[in-house]
Each structure stands twice: as structure tokens, then as C-alpha cells.
Amino acid sequence: MPGAIAVLGGTGPEGFGLALRWVRAGESVIIGSRDAGRARESAARIQAAVGANARVSGEENTAACAAADLIVLTVPFEGHCALLKQIKPAIRSGSIVVDTTVPLAASVGGRATRTLGIWEGSAAQQAAELVPQGVSVVAAFHNTSADILNGDATVDCDVIVCSDDPEATKTVRTLASKIPGVRAIDGGKLENARIVEQITALLIGLNIRHKGHSGIRITGLPEKAYEV
Ligand SMILES: NC(=O)c1ccc[n+]([C@@H]2O[C@H](COP(=O)([O-])OP(=O)(O)OC[C@H]3O[C@@H](n4cnc5c(N)ncnc54)[C@H](OP(=O)(O)O)[C@@H]3O)[C@@H](O)[C@H]2O)c1
Q1: Ligand 1 within 6 A of 79 CB?
Q2: Angle (CA) 163 167 170, round 5°
Q3: How far, in Å, from the CA of 222 to the mean position of ligand 1?
Q4: What's the 75 CA to ligand 1 centre distance in angstroms?
Q5: Atom of ligand 1 nearest to the CA of 61
Q6: Residue ranges, the chain, pLDDT below 50
């Protein structure tokens, strides 16, 4: 990526795992948090894990957002809308916002194996209504287990990337492909995020039932569908 990647909520398992994988791949990452100190602690943990050449720092969410052209949202659904409203003035024109959010019913005290109905169709489509004009929202990484991302093993999961901006889709597919084992597949329009988000509720149920860390693989497409 040309500039830094801001991972907002990167102190949590999903954002931390993505940040760790990207820093390992040589990317420059800014961990975002509601608390700058917590963000710096997470950055220091990545630095310690990856080594002296690691390019990682920590900032409060809005400051992290202001310093990056690629912003990855990894906060629970209950904080999704408020965070987007907070960072809106800091999102640079032409930026990409990558939304990993799964609107689990757990956000309102329900089950993690069920999702909420979102007026716009999905959390990612809600995000698209909240970002400034000229900013592309890309839905991705919903099905990638934080437990696996935080380990050392190859990630046995495909990432379905959905967006209404083909260039942004390509950028995020390239970024996803930097995680060993991941094949990043163009999933079409942003409206398809509603399907990809729902799959995660099923995966959580499978993990509970079978005690594992499930992912998805898409088979049967021509080889070029898996290449970036
Ligand atoms: N966990 C997974 O395996 C997984 C897989 C795929 C997708 N996802 C998606 O990735 C996102 C993050 O998942 P996670 O398991 O890492 O979540 P999490 O641990 O609940 O939250 C991640 C971080 O978000 C911040 N946060 C918590 N509540 C917030 C609020 N109300 N407003 C703003 N920030 C808040 C916290 O950071 P600070 O306190 O430092 O601000 C926290 O460390 C979710 O939307 C989830 O659906 C998760």
C-alpha cells in the first residue's frame, strides 16, 4: 500500500490480528483506539512480535484516521455508527474505508449466532451512507477468524471483497492477499455485504457446535478469480 493503514479498534482481536499480519508483510499500520495509550500498547506488542523493522504506531481513532488513506473498521456493531460520525471530518477525500463489521444480535444483548436487520441492508451499506462523498466503502474480512489471524499459521480462509468501486476492490484484494493463505475474491457490489456478514453468524454457530475456528473457501471458479 502506498501509505499507512489505520486499523480503528485495532486493540481488539480482529483488528490486532489483521494489523499483525500486515505489519509482518511489511505494511505500515497505525492502530486506532478510543484511548491513545491503549493503541500504543497494542502497537508495542506488534513491534515486539515482528521485530525492529516493524512499521507500527498507535493513536486515538480520529488521529489514526487523519493520518491514513486506508481505514479499516474493526469495532463491534454497537460502536459502528458513532465511530463513523466521529471520524467523518477526518476522513481524507479519496480514501477507502474497509468495513469488517458483522451486525451480531449480541450487540443488543442477543445471540452471537444471529444478526440484526439493518435498514440499509448491511453494516457496510450503513457505513457507505455515513462517509463523506468521494470515499469508497469496501466490505471484507467478515469471515476471517481473529483466533487464526493472531496465530502464526497460514490463514485457511478466503476473503470476499464487496464494493461499488472496482479500484477500491482491487486495492483491498491486494491487501488481503498479503495474509498468507488468504485468497481475495471479488464479491461484486457492496450490497452483497449483507450475505457475507450473515455467513459469520453461521461460522460462529459452527465454532460453538464443533469447537473450532471455521473459515470459508470458494471453489470452482477459474484460476484468475483467485489472482489479484
Ligand atoms: N473476532 C472475530 O473473529 C471477527 C471475525 C470477523 C469479523 N469481526 C468483526 O470485527 C469487529 C471487531 O471484532 P472484535 O472481536 O475484535 O471486537 P471487540 O474486541 O469487541 O472490539 C474491538 C475494539 O473495538 C473497540 N470498541 C469496543 N466497543 C466500542 C464502542 N462501543 N465504540 C467504539 N469502539 C469500541 C475496543 O477498542 P478500544 O477500547 O481500544 O477503543 C475494542 O478493543 C466486529 O465488528 C466483528 O464483527 C470479528
Answers
A1: yes
A2: 80
A3: 35
A4: 3
A5: 41
A6: none
Q: Is residue 33 in contact with ligand 1, taking CB distance under 6 Å?
A: yes
The CB of 144 under 6 Å from ligand 1? The reply is: yes
Buried (b) or exposed (e) across 165-200, using 16+ Cβ within 10 A?
Answer: eeebbbbbbebbbbbeebbbbbbeebbbbbbbbebb
| Nearest-atom index, ligand 1, CA of 73 | 11
pLDDT tens per residue across span 112-133: 999 999 999 999 999 999 999 9
Which residue lies with its CA nearest to atom 13 of ligand 1? 14
Q: Ligand 1 center to residue 174 CA distance, Å? A: 23
Q: Are 168 and 139 in contact (CB under 8 A)?
A: no
User: For 67-111, what is each residue's pLDDT tens digit?
Assistant: 999 999 999 999 999 999 999 999 999 999 999 999 999 999 999
For the CA atoms of 85, 90, 95, 98, what is the dihedral angle to 10 degrees?
-40
C-beta 38 within 6 A of ligand 1: yes
